[in-house]
Amino acid sequence: MMSATSTLALTHFVTLADSFDKDKVTPGVLGFIVFAVIGGAVWLLMKSMNKHMKKVDFEEQPKGGEAGGTASAAQAPEPKTG
After folding, report:
1. What is the pLDDT of residues 24-57, one digit of tens each?
2. Membrane-crossing residues (predicted)?
């Protein structure tokens, strides 16, 4: 025989089940797995990018001063057109 509290609890669950829309699409477990894989891939890409960016040695002007920069630009080959 069921007690009053268990009967009350079951009636609350039944009303929750009735209010659930069976036509509503939810992502479910597959959606979570896909989202987790995409998140992990983004994390790995960011980690790799950070490692590569630490290797970059950017200098705004070469060590020779401004004269070295203009000389190297003057010696650069002309781009081919057509």
Report:
1. 878 889 999 999 999 999 999 999 999 999 998 8
2. 29-46
* Number of continuous H segments (helices) and E segments (strands) in the chain: 3, 0
CB count within 10 Å of CB 77 equals 5
Whether 33 contacts 40, CB under 8 Å? no
pTM of the model: 0.44
| Dihedral angle computed from the Cα positions of residues 39, 42, 43 and 48, in that order, rounded to the nearest 10 degrees | 160
The HSE-up count of residue 39 (CA atoms within 13 Å, CB side) is: 6
